[in-house]
Design brief:
Helices cover 45% and strands 17% of the residues. It has 13 helices and 11 strands. Bound molecules: coenzyme A. Coenzyme A (COA) binds next to helix 7.
Length: 333
């Protein structure tokens, strides 16, 4: 299996500080192949959740080694009751009974998320066979936001002509308020820093610096103001994050257009973090780059969570899953 140069770089970093990543979809052969590849490349310790006998049979049939891979069958795990008790304690005020909690643990996304909460794993990659909502909901309920009251959002890394960009939010917050959009921008900038991408953030719109007027633009202008205020705080003062808006996409990434449309902007023409005004724009935008533009797309991965839990596209192949495990390892470092 040949990895892209971008993922090879992440794998090399992951190998320096090995993390344990849980893969709850052990019934899916793409996930099993990815686990085999991850263990072979020795950049993470994969834990597969599923029926041990079936998984072993599949590995034997394919001729894959199980070395470096742990298999856990949640129903038979000695931790099942402990996780259910913990979940009950966390969710009883929400009306969850002890029986509900135990039942919930037979959902492997919940069991895997409880493993992270209990420090039995460092991160999780799921979603090859589940919707984004089913993958992400346990993480929102159990792992929760790093900062109280702040929304968790998501990012993609898009690599075009060997240049990596962060796109956000393309998958979680459907119609962010101005404050949420500002938080998305600041969190995406930190994601960029985590992956050695320059944190030059463009707040995208269909207007550049007042070239058009509409309430949808007003939201982006307000979010830009709020994000700039955050970046002036002690926490971000020395982060190196540069942010500007509102900018059209061409003014954000093309220096010739930027010189005409936003000559005084510090980041216009060299933005590497693109913040979309809502999930419609973000989701369509990343798929355009991937499906028509031929760019590599990695994600969506969550940002702003206490520990990494990441979603896969249901169209993901084993190679995509390996890439997402590498991304998750870096987030866990
Ligand atoms: C992410 C998403 C699944 C959450 O929706 P949901 O499951 O209906 O969530 P709920 O409103 O029931 O909330 C569940 C919990 O998560 C929390 N939550 C929801 N969204 C959150 C966010 N963005 N950040 C932090 N917490 C969040 C809620 O506060 C709630 O916590 P609580 O139960 O402890 O009170 C929803 O925003 C969504 O569907 N987004 C779009 C996903 C999608 O289709 N993407 C396109 C394909 S990639």
């Amino acid at each position: 299996m040949q990895q892209t140069a971008f993922i090879q770089g992440l794998i090399a970093k992951a190998q320096k500080n090995i993390k344990t990543i849980v893969l709850p979809e052990g019934e899916d052969v793409r996930v099993l192949e990815a686990a085999y590849e991850v263990a072979k490349l020795q950049f993470a310790r994969p834990i597969i959740l599923g029926d041990e006998a079936k998984i072993k049979t599949c590995f034997a049939e394919k001729g894959w080694s199980l070395q470096g891979i742990e298999i856990i069958t949640p129903e038979k795990s000695p931790k099942l009751q402990q996780y259910a008790d913990m979940f009950y304690e966390m969710r009883k005020e929400k009306g969850v009974s002890k029986e509900d909690a135990l039942k919930q643990m037979s959902n492997y996304n919940y069991f895997g998320t409880m493993m992270i909460k209990s420090h039995d794993a460092d991160g999780m990659v799921s979603g090859a066979a589940h919707s984004t909502a089913d993958t992400v909901r346990p993480a929102l309920q159990i792992i929760k936001s790093k900062k109280k009251g702040r929304s968790v959002s998501s990012a993609f890394i898009i690599v075009s002509d060997n240049v990596p960009y962060v796109f956000s939010d393309c998958a979680i917050i459907i119609d962010p308020s101005a404050q949420e959009l500002a938080d998305i921008a600041v969190d995406a900038a930190q994601t960029a820093i985590q992956f050695d991408i320059e944190p030059n953030v463009a707040m995208l719109s269909f207007s550049t610096k007042g070239s058009a007027k509409h309430e949808k633009i007003d939201k982006v202008v307000e979010a830009t103001k709020l994000a700039k205020q955050q970046l002036e705080s002690e926490e971000y003062k020395n982060s190196g994050i540069k942010l500007d808006g509102e900018l059209q996409l061409d003014a954000a990434v093309d220096s010739v257009v930027a010189a005409k449309k936003a000559p005084n902007s510090e980041i216009a023409g060299k933005a590497r973090v693109l913040i979309f005004p809502d999930i419609n724009a973000g989701n369509i935008g990343y798929k355009l780059c991937q499906r028509i533009g031929g760019a590599e797309a990695y994600g969506p991965f969550l940002q702003g969570l206490n520990a990494p839990v990441n979603d896969l596209s249901r169209g993901a192949n084993a190679q995509d899953i390996v890439g997402m495990v590498a991304i998750t390892c870096l987030q866990a470092q």
